[in-house]
Amino acid sequence: MQTILLSHENVGKIAEQMYENSIRQKVESAENIGKMVIIDIETGDYEVDKNGLQAAKRLNARHENTRLFGIRIGYNVAASFGGVMERVSL
């Protein structure tokens, strides 16, 4: 597969569109709130885990050198350093 060069902003937009259009309804449940969903923006494949790094490792094992993006399920941000993470669903 040919690698397409994308800005960080474009990677985020593509991942958020994938999440909203096809992934959210599959992963957003009470037991997954607060977990990370890591999305491979080239294939649409994704992994859910409490630890986003573990999910990313599993995706990288299947698809080397892919572009990944993480979203914290049910929250407006993936991580916060001294700020506030707002719950947006469930």
Notes on the structure:
34% of the residues lie in helices and 16% in strands. It has 90 residues and is an alpha+beta fold. The protein has one domain (8-72). The protein has a three-stranded antiparallel β-sheet, sandwiched between helices. Strand 1 (36-40) and strand 2 form a beta hairpin. The protein is globular and about 35 Å long. The mean pLDDT is 86.
Key attributes of the depicted protein:
90 residues, alpha+beta, 3-stranded antiparallel beta sheet, 2 helices, 16% strand, globular
* Largest beta-sheet details: 3 strands, antiparallel
Roughly how much helix do the residues carry, as a percent range? 25-40%
Please give the radius of gyration in angstroms. Answer: 13 Å
Q: What's the N-to-C terminus distance?
A: 38 Å
Q: Care to count the β-strands?
A: 3
Coarse morphology? globular
Mean pLDDT: 86
Encode the helix/strand succession as letters: HEEHE
Total of domains: 1
Strand line-up of the largest beta sheet: 2-1-3
> Which stretches of 5+ consecutive residues score pLDDT under 50?
none
As a percent range, the share of strand residues is: 15-25%
Look at the helices and sheets and give the structural class.
alpha+beta
| Helical segment count | 2
